[in-house]
Amino acid sequence: MQAVRASDASWTCPPETLSIGPDQATALFRVLQEALTNVTRHANATQVEVSLSSTQADLVMEVHDNGSGIPDEAINRADSLGIIGMRERALLLGGELRGDRRRRKVARQ
């Protein structure tokens, strides 16, 4: 297993202050924490990109890496507790958790 170093990670966030409460901030942090844990443990990625963006109606957090991706059958397994936890936290915020294996390469500027 090769860990992603901080120098191989990028973060994009809107310059304006986001109006979210402490419960929402904690839920977002925990989802991101689990996503990055999964990248480190399972994806064999060497780069990761995290972005946070907002519209008037939505807050979108995206995590992309250049790793192997999760097998389709693993996404809904009963023992995929990290994914289940991320999905539940997103639902509690009125959102959803989506996975897209099509974007595999991380574009670095």
Question: How does this structure look, described?
Answer:
By secondary structure, the chain is an alpha+beta fold. The chain has a domain at 9-14 and 24-92: Heat Shock Protein 90 (2-Layer Sandwich), CATH 3.30.565. The chain is 35% helix and 17% strand. The chain is built from three helices and three strands, in the order E-H-E-E-H-H. The chain has helices spanning 22-43, 72-75, 81-92, and strands spanning 9-12, 48-54, 59-65. A three-stranded mixed sheet has the order 1-2-3, covered by helices on one side. A hairpin with a 4-residue loop joins strand 2 and strand 3. The radius of gyration is 14 Å and the shape is globular. The protein starts with 8 loop residues before the first strand and ends in a 17-residue tail after the last helix. 9% of the residues are buried.
